[in-house]
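Suppose you are handed a protein chain with no further information: no name, no annotation, nothing but its sequence. What can you learn? This example shows the usual starting point.
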Amino acid sequence: AVDTVDLVPSDGIVVRAVAAAADGRTVAVDLDIAAEAALGERRVIARSGGTAIPSATTDGNRFYLAGELPRIDSISPIQLNPGQTADLTIRGVRFSATSEVRIERPDGSDGGVEIELPIEIAPDRIQARVQVASDAPAGLRRVRVVTAAGASSDVLTPANTLTVVTDELTEIPLVATRALSVFKPGPAGTPIETAAYGPILGVARGAVVSDVQPRLLETGRVTRLQVTGRGLDAVTEVTIAPAVGLAISAPVIAEDRIEVDVAVAADAELGIRAFEVAGPDGVLPTARADLAAIAVVAPVPMLEGVDPEYLLPGAPARQVTLVGRNFQQATAVRVLPQNDLVIGAFVVSGDGSRITLPISAGAAATLGPRTVVVETPAGATSSEPAVGNRLYIGDPQARSVNALVGPILGVQRAASPPVAAIPAIAQAPLLGVNRPFQTIVQTDRLGFAQPIGVARGPILFGVEPAIVVPGFEGDLILPGAEVLAGTTIAFEDGVGISIIRPAQVEQDAEGRRFVRVGIAVDPAAPAQSHRIRAENPPSQLDVAVEIPFADAQSGRLSVAGEQPIIQSISPVLALSGQQVVLRIRGLNLATATAVRLVPETGIAVGSAPTVSADGSELSVALDIDPLAEPGARLVQVVGPGGVSSEVADASNTLTIVRP
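A reasonable first move is to predict its three-dimensional structure. Written in structure tokens, the prediction is:
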């Protein structure tokens, strides 16, 4: 029998009592829900004696915590003709979780008015394109908004009534005038409560700052700020706090604006700083709260090279290095298009000149060039294909090279005796040459070459497998060159890892050397990465010398955590051509390395998911191609512990629709 019930997430909800029915078919649960509890989907875990009882369906153990019912305050237009297409605006409250908009007859039957997807949804407004059927009969139509909490009122009122009329409609332009009251003779009707809407109005007394441009200060540059507003002629000072790394000139005052030059040191600390304009009576108020802050950012990033330039389809992930400038605040790395690519978490060098990240291409990846883009708060590198931002999918050795056509080449053998020239006239038919006119444009470009590393003595190229699970017992293979017999292997901070068979140096069929070592991983080993330390034997060298790896990342062994689980995503609907931030909630997300969509054609996924401190939520940027095919996409989270569920349900499905 069920004795306990847990909710995930449980924030804002307390389970008070659990009572199982005598027949074992139902369980009654009393909940205490806080007024500020977050709305959204919750998962129910029923336990008997501490053991979780599985759900018969993927969504059978989920419920939605919803707020109050939506309310419609007005619609516009209120009349349409048969065959007409128009933009319908619905105003009201509690529209954020809208899942459907209905236009129906008073009896609930189809009203002959079709709503075209997508619809634009805001908390207090819905914008939709509607098409009235050419044979739609005249009469009233009821407009209703449906959310997770339920549907808006089904009672016909002036606020939710659309009328289909056969009379020709005349558009009356808006007239700006004073308030006007209209009285219509007739019997008194029933009062109707409704809300009045108007633009946000701010009232300021005295001097005020209405705008500041630009809002970003780049390090290593002098930026001229322009402050506009009213009553600025008495301004005495412009300050930015903290001012460390900044040099601010005296303000130059005009009638309605102030100009001030701000020099930002190259090593100035990045981030948000307070911005104030002061006068004789103190700090001037701002028309918006965000005008009281200004950001110091790194300069716009510049991508100058990609190494290596080639990825083999179906091969293991390779460490790719991006060379350039101003990468310090990089937020994402994208490869366009990203079809059949898996991009891992990236690491930025201290001077911001390099980004290193693992990238792999699926076996079915389309061969050819891709464009790499680096994004920062200050902007993104160019998405236009150019020298320095190309990554090729394919085998560089199989790359075809076009034949070079040159003039006829004569070869003179030095040993041949000289031949006396015989003057003569050669006769031949007329020869026509068609030489098309070409405009030669000279373009200055930077030339790049791949960096070459030279190793002297023993070296290791990596470890296979690079990721193991708790409880793993087996051999690790470390391929290398000039590795000596007696080489030792150890793990720095190797908590939970034991060496059960000492390292042995062996050779493969082609004579290449590698190190084999047996290890056992404790079932309770924490999920983390361990540095591998390999040393030459002291008996063959004067002292034990550490053997380097070809690159730092290849010399690490990772212990995987638990498989990631997706509980919900937001949004669940996105438009072709849109850029959105996908938020994923679930379990075991702290070690996530990538997010992928299936199918992923037409969608570029950001390479650096942002994970919350408790590992329950991650965010990733999506760039949806305008030509992306509409339909459902399965969202999966990839981590050392595996990949989230391959079964699509309401918690892990993103639907793409066309505008």
